[in-house]
Amino acid sequence: MNPLLKPQPTAPVTETPTDVSQNPSYSSKIPVRPHKLRKLSSVAAADSTDGGDSSNTLLVSKPSTSTTATATKNRRRNSSQLARVPPSAIAPLSAAGEIDAALRHLRAADPLLADLIDSLPRPAFDSHQPPFLALTKNILYQQLAYKAGTSIYTRFVEFCGGEDNVSPDAVLSLSTSQLRQIGISGRKAIYLYDLANKYKSGILSDHLIVGMDDKSLFTMLSMVKGIGSWSVHMFMIFSLHRPDVLPVSDVGVRKGVQTLYGLEDLPRPPQMEHLCEKWRPYRSVGSWYLWRLVEGKGNLQSGAGTALEGIMPLQQHIGQQEEMQQQHQLQLLEPINGTGSFG
């Protein structure tokens, strides 16, 4: 045999047809069909290893249960760590430039409120009483006309030796009979004692209150007997000057929303949250203008607006509602008073 001659193939070679009509699956644009990526189970992977055709199969490893559990645990740990991060400093409305920033935002966010802002004077938040004194004053003014509340508060301050001396120890040093002599009811005496005891035990303090975020502050203050949601909102706005508080339980603000948006009925809290969402993060200032709107229409009682060094519209009505709620709660807790305060 001539060595230059190549050996003949032992098997015939089938050539790829080029006639498209004879092979409809043939495509000139995609000469090779890409392999599909398939996720195989452990059984299928074993079969392909034992001798199955794995040329067109890509084995994808499936994470184990322990790995998935570890990743989930790490995500939960990270989220819990983020939840423990202290909130950033809250700039009160009494800080320089905050009112201007609030008015710019509200004008741009709500044209209806912009017209109201242009027609009314600029708001002011300039009360700087310590939190304990402001909360005590809040309790004393509940369900009272402004003049009667001022008279009782003045006598209470004299008993304590001046506003600078109003402290938890001073409140606890006064007996119930002494408080009744100056016009403080027995129920309000319970409220004052509960507030003072929470300060004494360290649950609350002026420092803690100032540093809390709005949600935590609402939760902690609501634990004090005699302080409901309306009282907390008023305290946050007019004592701490928090910028983003919407007092959804206040009748004045509800009437203001009804008037501003032309509603047939008084809005409920969810509707108020929805309508005033665009005011964030300055809903406190928006609420201030709603009070002024309602006051201008003659819907507020004269002189009821300065009970907490600010505008306290319809305080008597709300205070009565809150006191009735607190009384009902106290009646429910009466049988288990021996177990201690839930606060």
Task: Tell me about this structure.
There is one protein chain. The chain is mainly alpha-helical and 343 residues long. Among the domains are: 93-125 and 243-301 and 314-323, Endonuclease Iii, domain 2 (Orthogonal Bundle), CATH 1.10.1670.40; 129-240, Hypothetical protein, domain 2 (Endonuclease III, domain 1, Orthogonal Bundle), CATH 1.10.340.30. Helices cover 51% and strands 0% of the residues. The protein has 16 helices and no strands. Helix 5 packs antiparallel against helix 9 (186-200), helix 11 (214-221) packs across helix 12 and helix 13 crosses helix 15 (283-296). The radius of gyration is 36 Å and the shape is elongated. The protein starts with 41 loop residues before the first helix and ends in a 10-residue tail after the last helix. Keywords: DNA damage, DNA repair. InterPro entries: Alkylbase_DNA_Glycosylase/TA, DNA_glycosylase, HhH-GPD_domain. It comes from Actinidia rufa. This is DNA glycosylase superfamily protein.
